[in-house]
Amino acid sequence: MNRKGCDIEATGINYTIYTQKPQPPFKIFNKDQQVTQHQQPFPDPDTNPRARRVLREVSCHAKPWEVLAIVGPSGAGKSSLLEILAGKLTPQTASIYVNQKPMDKSRFKKTSGYVTQKDTLFPLLTVEETLVFTAKLRLNLPSLELRSRVKSLIKELGLTHVANARVGDDRVRGISGGERRRVSIGVAVVHDPEVVILDEPTSGLDSNCAFQIIDMIKTMAETRGKTVILSIHQPGFRIIKLFNSILLLANGTVLHQGTVDELNLSLRLIGLEPPLHVNIVEFAIDSIESIQQQKNQKSSNLEQDIITASTNRITQGKFTLQQLFQQSKVIDLDHDHEDNKDQEQEQDQMITDGFANSRFFEAVILTHRFWKNISRTKELFAYRTLQMLVSEALPVFLQEREILMKETSCGSYRVSSYAIANGLVYLPFLLILAVLFATPLYCALVPNFIVGNSVISGVIGSFFLFSGYFVSKQGKCLEYLFGKCLVSGEDVLREQGGYEDDGSDAPKGDLKVPFFEFFWTFVVLIIEKSA
Ligand SMILES: Nc1ncnc2c1ncn2[C@@H]1O[C@H](COP(=O)(O)OP(=O)(O)OP(=O)(O)O)[C@@H](O)[C@H]1O
Question: Is 198 helix (H, G, I), strand (E, B) or coil?
């Protein structure tokens, strides 16, 4: 595999979000009314009140073997920039070059690793299992080689002592937050990507733990030639020293890109004196307003200089330094052309038809993973089976939805394989449910098909009807509307003690019939998808 590294250069990134007018619920399905965030329905984002300019003319450069840190206050646009660089978001304008070639998004997503701010892991799997399943899905390697690769990754991540412990989450007790972050990083790098993009890898961790994680990432970049781009809120003293380059972002504009020493120097050049022993990045974030004022003034002077220079050039027929630099770059590109060709061939061989496994093997691996998750629930298996069928089949999917979206968006496997595997695992449970439903009805209640059918329809109908009374206060808006508007039996609900005791019309949060959740979350999902 190519070890030359991956150079990423982005210029002129402009990203604007257009918020939509609230629409009547039934117009959601009207295709003509739909406007995606990325289409530009309004010509001028500066004058449009519904436009929110997230990034303006952002440029950045990330080099192999180095760590580029994107810093800035909350809402500066760090996550948006990372998602654009990872090929997950499409801005209105941008030129992104990967090794001096325009970025091929689908290819880049497969050959890079993206770590989201939130850990999306299966809580019931162990650390080793999590990494083994991901490795199986992403790499087409013999079992022994795959296991030894995972073992060495676990060692590199510093997780050997918890390799057999369950990952856990807020509800299921498992490994610590810092260790979970490491597992998320492991999942993103198990296929040895050349580029690793991490959104706030240290969020929620204490300073020591944060340092250990960044130190580990830095070691990965230095020893394996990876290009690392990460965002970070408030890096401590020790952490700052690990960054090769810092990009200071504020209100969607770049105020600085360079080393920490260069940041220090530019602050001094604009008349800001960082006190001794003060964290320079924190100082820069605190002084953003002053830096921005200076920058605006500078750019208006610069604009004037450019106009003068271009007038001179036209009159004298000379080239600027930048133009000469561009020309030399073209010559370098010719030299690199042959190298790049070999490199691409190697990568093409690796990616083959885009997935590491055939559809059949993907379904087998995913079935195995589902089965492990389902069989490891705390409750008794039989009870769990029934409970899951009635109330959790869809919630389980919703819990896994983020993982599914993350994994399929980076090309780990096909959505159809997930559907097949899920179907295979749930099939026996559905069969059990069908038998449980059918037996008493058939034996005790039902003399013929028509009556049987009516009874079943009645039971299911009651579920949907009465569950409307018990909508969670924190529940989704649509659910609440349904409970309030379509089913107007408020008195029944009051009698049942289904409303809050303070006399308000908010239904009690703990009275929630799962079937309702089941059905309406599904409807909400479909609506979200079609919108
Ligand atoms: N889908 C969206 N709809 C509306 N506003 C959005 C959306 N996505 C991002 N924004 C806005 O864009 C701005 C930048 O968001 P982004 O998440 O990139 O910031 P950030 O620097 O990563 O913040 P944080 O450090 O708090 O995560 C924020 O003001 C945010 O509210």
Answer: strand
What is 8-286's CATH topology?
Answer: Rossmann fold (3.40.50)
Report whether residue 116 contacts ligand 1, using a CB cutoff of 6 Å.
Answer: no
Quote the ligand 1 centre to 529 CA distance (angstroms). Answer: 21
| Closest protein CA for atom 12 of ligand 1 | 54
Contact 365, 141 (CB under 8 A): no
Specify the ligand 1 atom closest to the Cα of 117. 27
**ipTM of the complex model:** 0.94
Residue nearest to atom 25 of ligand 1 (CA): 74
- For 322-383, what is the HEC assignment? HHHHHHHHHHHHHHHHHHHHHHHHHHHHHHCCCCCCCHHHHHHHHHHHHHHHHHCCCCCHHH
Q: Which atom of ligand 1 is nearest to the CA of 249?
A: 21
Question: In Å, what is the CA distance from 293 to each residue of 71, 90, 241?
Answer: 19, 30, 28
> At CA 11, angle to CA 85 and CA 186, rounded to 5?
20
Distance CA 230, CA 210 (A): 13
Are 92 and 38 in contact by the 8 Å Cβ rule? The answer is: yes
Residue with the smallest CA separation from ligand 1 atom 26 is 74
Give Cα 386 distance to the centre of its chain. 33
- For tokens 């390697």, what's the residue? 141
Domain boundaries, the chain: 8-286, 373-413+439-530
Question: Tens digits of per-residue pLDDT, 200-227?
Answer: 998 888 888 899 999 999 998 999 889 9
- Substitution candidate for ligand 1 out of 14, 35, 39, 52 with most atoms within 8 A of CB: 52
Residues (pLDDT < 50) of the chain are: 1-2, 25-40, 306-307, 309-311, 313-339, 346-353, 380, 476, 483-501, 503, 505-518, 530-531
C-alpha distances in Å from residue 305, one per residue of 11, 92, 299, 352:
21, 28, 9, 51
Q: Which residue has its alpha carbon closest to ligand 1 atom 28?
A: 75
Taking CA atoms, 353 is separated from 139, 349, 358, 359, 364, in Å, by 13, 9, 9, 11, 19
